[in-house]
Prior knowledge:
Strand order of the largest sheet: 1-2-3-4
Strand content: 25-35%
Distance between the termini: 25 Å
Number of helices: 5
Number of strands: 8
Shape: elongated
Amino acid sequence: xxxxxQNTREDFKxxxxxxxxxxxxxxxxQYYYSVFWYLAVLGLGIYFSAKHEEVFGVCVFVALAGLYxxxxxxxxxxxxxxxxxxxxxxxxxxxxxxxxxxxxxERFSGIQLxxxxxxxxxxxxxxxxxxxxxxxxxxxxxxxxxxxxxxxxELIETLERHKVQKKA
Length: 168
């Protein structure tokens, strides 16, 4: 089976979102902990400036705290910025993926990558794409818009025939 497709920036963004989904809760708590810590330090600066009647110092620390809160109010904003940044590191390419009895072979930009079936861990089906995972941080990303319904079924059937498990 041979598939021709193109990975877009949005495909890579969704890939990183799936890849990091297990870390999102810990990253959120770490993010808000660092926000709280930084604001506590600024609060300490405000306290000492006020105690020593340094009005200018109080104004500077209050302005810094206000600016910091304005820029770092939401974890979701920072999370999306991280996804965008990682997606920007990947170029959009035209790709060919060949699935045969020896494994999966992807060709792009003059490079050929062959992964035997024994090295393919599992696959994930998203609403618009299929991810075939073969390393911890590497997957084939296949957008469904390039596949007919028959090709999509054949692709999933081929994966299951070679004992590739669907990731829950």
